[in-house]
Amino acid sequence: MTTVAYLQNEIPIKIICVLDTASATTTIDLDFAIAMGITLENEKEKEFIYVDRRANVRTAKCSIKLLSQDLSREFNLKCTAIANFSDNCCVWPWSKFLKNHEHLKNIDIPPYPEPPFGRILIGVDHPELLVFKSYAISKSSGAYALQSPLP
After folding, report:
1. Preceding peptide of 116 cis, ω within 30°
2. Model-level pTM?
3. Which residues are 65's β-sheet partners?
């Protein structure tokens, strides 16, 4: 699942967050964090061991502040910055395609920033952002719409 939020910087920057209940930690793209001037700590090369391979990746720790879409709520998150995280995190810009899907016509999805890359992955270390505030079912199509705490 994805949602649009703002990264608090000198001026808020619109970003896409990926909500992932299968991820143990919250992750931000390392190069994006550097470009945003986020203070990084404990930078190191970390080895990830998978069933069939190993990978070495630059990582660091950091803290960020996210703002809700209406800029009224803020969330302080501790993250792991991982090099090249966003390279493989291109997300579908639903706001551009709503008009093509009759069953989605009443769902309010804000326009995605360009390019449509997930810059932050929110994991179960921040469960308050994974619990939905409301659920809605379209009477005409039966489609679900979810509203997370971030919108």
Report:
1. no
2. 0.76
3. 76
